[in-house]
Amino acid sequence: MSVRPWRSVLYVPGDKPRAVExxxxxxxxxxxxxxxxxxxxxxxxxxxENVAAALRTPWPCPVLVRVNGLGTPWEHADRELALRAGADxxxxxxxxxxxxxxxxxLRVPLWAMxxxxxxxxxxxxxxxxxxxxxxxxxxxDLARALRTRPDxxxxxxxxxxxAVVLAARAHGKxxxxxxxxxxxxxxxxxxxxxxxxxxxxxxxxxIHPGQIEIANRALGVSEVEAEAARGLxxxxxxxxxxxxxxxxxxxxxxxxxxxxxxxxxxxxxxxxRTDRPLA
Length: 279
Fold this sequence. Notes:
Blueprint: E1 8-13, H1 17-23, E2 30-34, H2 44-54, E3 63-66, H3 75-85, E4 89-92, H4 98-102, E5 110-114, H5 117-121, H6 123-128, E6 132-137, H7 139-146, H8 158-170, E7 174-177, H9 186-199, E8 203-206, H10 212-218, H11 223-241, E9 247-249, E10 252-254, H12 256-274
Parallel strand pairs: 1-2, 1-8, 2-3, 3-4, 4-5, 5-6, 6-7, 7-8
Antiparallel strand pairs: 9-10
């Protein structure tokens, strides 16, 4: 089974060459070199040059480039850079409809950021659009647009978060959870990672190196989970070899969907352990 872990996806400002180089060594499952919100207008050109230089040498993980949005002065130069420099994907902010994606005709996978109420309402169509690899929640802009109040449990955003997961999973795409702003609160970050995993997200976008290990652990496969997956598969295999139509594991009925889930769990566990370049 071919899978790739997306537990931690690190944003790095494109105009910070030292931070970009350090990102190679931090153990994130993927990196987003940012040309948009993290870069001031007067630094956009320098950031583009830094990103181009960084992409000239191999990385140990997929590298995506977040470009400036449609209608901005930098959109065309950003996209041209991402395409020519060999980025593994392009992150497009504030996507609100499938037509926007279809009209771009990109030659690299596109990751659509869902950051507005309209984007949430059209998430299914966006996920279904050709070339889209995944959906990324932009909760800061979304919360502002929805006029929500701060809530550690993200209660006002739960409907939108689940809508993004539902849209992505329905079309076989990767859903990534939003960033956690307070880098001084690892306990709160870990709780939100757990919530994201419970909701069905594949991973978490992060903004600080200290968040990577927590996200990898909270959204990854533990040894205990891997061992349980092996046991379930073994119980299923033994039942079939003995000609039994029903298998049980730890007192629960085992069906094909449980076996499929266990196989995916083991594939993710193995991919994270070996850092294999899987699709």
